[in-house]
Amino acid sequence: MSAIAGIIHLKKEPVPFEHGRNIMKGLEKFPADDIQVWHKHNAFIGNHAQWITPESVGEQQPFYDSERQCVITADAIIDNREELFEKLQVERSKQKHMPDSQLILLAYYKWGEESPKHLVGDFAYMIWDERNQKLFGARDFSGSRTLYYYKDDERFAFCTTIMPLFTLPGVKKELNEQWLAEYIANPGRFESVEPVLTVYKNIYQIPPSHSITIINRSLFLNRYCDLIPGTKMKLKSDDEYIDAFREVFQKAVDSKLRTHKTVGGHLSGGLDSGSVAAFATKTLRKDNKKLHTFSYVPVEDFVDWTPRSRVANERPLIESTVNYIHDISPNYLSFEDKNPYSEIDNWLETIESPYKFFENTFWLRGIYEEASRKGIGVLLNGQRGNWTISWGSTFDYYALLFKSLRWIKLNQEMKEYCYRFGTGRKRILSNMNRRLLPKFYQSQDLNDEFPIYINKDFSSRTKVYEILKDQGVDIKGKVDSNAYKVKEDHFHKLYYWNTTGTYGTKLSLRYGLVDRDPTNDLRVVRFSLSVPEEQYVQNGLDRALIRRATKGYLPDDIRLNMRKRGIQGADGVHRMTSIWDRFIDEIEKLKSDSLMTGMIDIKVIDKCVAIIKDNPKPELAFEFEFNILMRSLILYRFIKNL
Fold this sequence. Notes:
19 strands; Glutamine Phosphoribosylpyrophosphate, subunit 1, domain 1; globular; 26 helices; alpha/beta; 6-stranded antiparallel β-sheet; Rossmann fold
């Protein structure tokens, strides 16, 4: 993988070399195996390389094709290499050592601006077509790698990170009010509902699933991938669905193992990361290699306060997976000196923007740090699994059966569910009714509303409520009760995707390794969207396909566990007990900051402080009041550090 950068002068004037040198200098804080540039007249292209795959070692990037007069710089790992070799008729003697950047370039020659549709993997790249004075690039379907840009009448500049763009003359750090308003007003974990925006006024990003073309001084963004569920596959038996799943998932996992370094993986006590680990070790053991796993566990003195259905300390479950799979070298990490508050400045510097996922920051960065120390090149995860491999919502499926008048099937499923859980139908009917009569139940859940804490004048000036409403975002945090609608939105609305790509790219650059998610592989996503719903909920089992497909891969206490689920970050407030007064003091300071008072409602902040000030109980970790104060503090620090 790489950090990429470039400057194109749109009026065909020469690009001063020092401008390119300065933008590349802004990337020097990241480790690099090689740094190369290509500079010719009105174009400067750079590549700050980290060699992850065998083919990338010693790779020439930027790569210039003198015959076609095209140059490419790519931050990419392409997973469907064999398929592309065949389609592009690449000679067998060249396949083994061909870098992914040159494979992307060949795809561009064959398919032009349609070429991103043919690529599977994690990528962001730019191609300068010198002959036609055209710049073309793309970002993968889920935005797993970032790519920012700046454009004025004379220049177009791009970079994997934001800060180097500010080294260009005339590019100012001006805050984007719309982005800030959405960060505050939107109760969800994503920041802006417009995926092209950033926190800075004139800095934009190529959205996930989009390509970009700059020609004749005009810029065009084109969405090339839209994952809307379509025709369902029809196989002859349940076993055939299991075989089909294992085939596509093993292929996805294997393609993510491609590195000349050591392979690692996040491992929790659940199905998703456990399945990734099980399928990965199946391949790694053929070469007598082990999978090095990294698992967060709470600090020793933490007392689990979470409901009986949740597990804050997943170590016993993780150990069950490790002992069953074998060929795993586990690392259990508590990061005793870290907490959400102590991580703020580090994360703001890393991701260059305010963020909302503070609950998990201390262990996320800690795992990257530890994995880097151990020489890991690829760090596997199963982050997208809930929406792909382990999809299957019991009560939504039962409601679907009811509405489609499939009552015999519903009756059979309810019997199986009652048998498995030792419960009566009353529980099932109650949960079904919440799906069938969502408006009635929403009116009863007033205590679950996220408090509105944006300044009224600021919200009116930015029209943020109208913007959020147009995108289907409830400003009080109400989530659609229909899981199928939520899933469709998850894959169609691109603002859900930016957060993981942002921190994944920038932690990757900082620590010289790359996070790879087989559950987010485009082939797996498409397969999962084509599987009939009765394969996902079956015989009283939710997440039924992955539970059946991992028989022999995972122990039954993990594979068939339907009663408890892990929860990360539950000890976040507990970790902050010793510095709680410092946290509250800083909240008091932000209340007198003129920029902050113009954006947030100080009365709401006062109420939140009054509730939690003198009682830092661990249960606050996921409460609205702590959430609002942490989000506000992160924003305050970001503005203060500008």
